[in-house]
């Protein structure tokens, strides 16, 4: 699987889902910065950036005018930004589908819910080299897509 926007060099891709990116942090950090009061409160929190760099887009879309989109910590991968969020180091922007368990357990909180999700062209894709795949791989490919799409 790969997150991004195709085409992916040398790979065939099938969309599993478009990413719905939501801000997440620990409940304690959300309370300490009163994040429930609105996106402008992010000005007092550390933004955890991943390589996709979508905080400026999210902040603009949801009218967080007083927040410096460039401040915060930078990570090369989304999972590293999420690890920092789980440790209470700031607020990460993450695909909702990747953090279901953390939200359900209460380790992370989405202070603005899913109503303020940034849905971009990028998504989660099933990828494989082009050409004929062995029957077992083809069966797994079909099953994964059925599960993802509820077909």
The CATH class name reads: Alpha Beta
Number of helices: 5
In terms of DSSP E residues, the strand content is 15-25%
Uncertain residue segments: none
Supply the CATH architecture. 3-Layer(aba) Sandwich
User: N-to-C terminal Cα separation, in Å?
Assistant: 19 Å
Give the ordered list of helices and strands.
Answer: EEHEHEHEHEH
Radius of gyration: 17 Å
CATH topology: D-Maltodextrin-Binding Protein, domain 2
**Structural domains: how many:** 1
Question: Which structural class best describes the helix and strand composition?
Answer: alpha/beta
Would you report the number of β strands?
Answer: 6
GO molecular function: DNA-binding transcription factor activity; sequence-specific DNA binding
GO biological process, one term: DNA-templated transcription
Protein name: LysR substrate-binding domain-containing protein
Domain LysR substrate-binding: 2-147
Write the topology of this structure.
Elements: E1 2-4, E2 12-24, H1 27-32, E3 47-49, H2 55-61, E4 73-74, H3 78-86, E5 91-95, H4 100-105, E6 118-128, H5 135-149
Give structural attributes.
D-Maltodextrin-Binding Protein, domain 2, alpha/beta, 151 residues, 6 strands, six-stranded mixed sheet
Account of the protein in words:
This protein has one domain: D-Maltodextrin-Binding Protein, domain 2, CATH 3.40.190. It is elongated, with a radius of gyration of 17 Å. The chain has five helices and six strands. Strand 3 (47-49), helix 2 (55-61) and strand 4 (73-74) form a beta-alpha-beta unit. The longest helix has 15 residues, at 135-149. It is 28% helix and 25% strand. A six-stranded mixed sheet has the order 1-6-2-5-3-4. By secondary structure, it is α/β, with parallel strands linked by helices. It holds the Pfam family LysR_substrate. This is LysR substrate-binding domain-containing protein. Belongs to the LysR transcriptional regulatory family. InterPro entries: LysR-type_TF_proteobact-type (IPR058163), LysR_subst-bd (IPR005119).
